[in-house]
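Weekly sync, protein design subgroup
Attendees: M.S., D.O., the rotation student, P.L. (late)

Item 1: inverse folding check
M.S. brought a backbone from last month's batch and wanted to see whether the design step gives back something sensible before we order anything. D.O. pointed out we never logged the input encoding, so this time it goes straight into the notes. Structure tokens as presented (166 positions):
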């Protein structure tokens, strides 16, 4: 059982330090990737303010397939290069979208989402998938979020045993 204290959300570096500490405590003795990313999505959904979706899309062939998440039901398959998630997968670069309605080709799984951040998950230079977080608030995400979530992914990579193929 995990009991989490809410962090000061005005201090993003402190918030992400706390989230990453909780993540490490949850997965350091459990290397199963599915259990790890399931709890990771729940942790983000519980701890991050002003979000409406947090989860993972995993690489299967040349597309992303929905993995563990928290939020409303989502799109199941996303081609590389399509939408924010597919763009992050193809470019292997973090995508911070301040207004999803201004992103060419945005895939609207939840009409209440206004901004989005997507981080590619690379393990030994191999794309595993992406971490996707949506918010009903425009311009919700910034570089501090990207830095904190990049550390979150590093923690996942440090402890989880990713499969060769999903």
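Designed sequence read out in the meeting:
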């Amino acid at each position: 059982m995990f009991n989490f204290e809410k962090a000061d959300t005005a201090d993003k570096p402190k918030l992400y330090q706390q989230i990453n500490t909780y993540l490490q405590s949850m997965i350091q003795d459990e290397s199963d990737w599915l259990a790890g990313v399931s709890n990771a999505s729940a942790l983000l959904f519980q701890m991050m303010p002003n979000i409406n979706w947090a989860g993972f899309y995993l690489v299967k062939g040349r597309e992303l397939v929905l993995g563990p998440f928290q939020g409303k039901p989502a799109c199941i398959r996303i081609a590389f290069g399509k939408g924010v998630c597919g763009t992050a997968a193809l470019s292997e670069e973090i995508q911070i979208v301040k207004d999803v309605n201004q992103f060419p080709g945005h895939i609207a799984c939840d009409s209440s989402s206004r901004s989005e951040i997507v981080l590619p998950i690379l393990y030994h230079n191999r794309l595993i998938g992406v971490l996707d977080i949506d918010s009903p608030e425009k311009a919700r995400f910034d570089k501090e979020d990207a830095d904190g979530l990049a550390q979150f992914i590093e923690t996942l990579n440090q402890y989880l045993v990713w499969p060769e193929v999903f």
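Discussion: DSSP finds four helices and six strands in the chain. The beta strands are 53-60, 63-71, 77-79, 95-97, 115-123, 126-135.
Action: P.L. to compare against the previous round before Friday.
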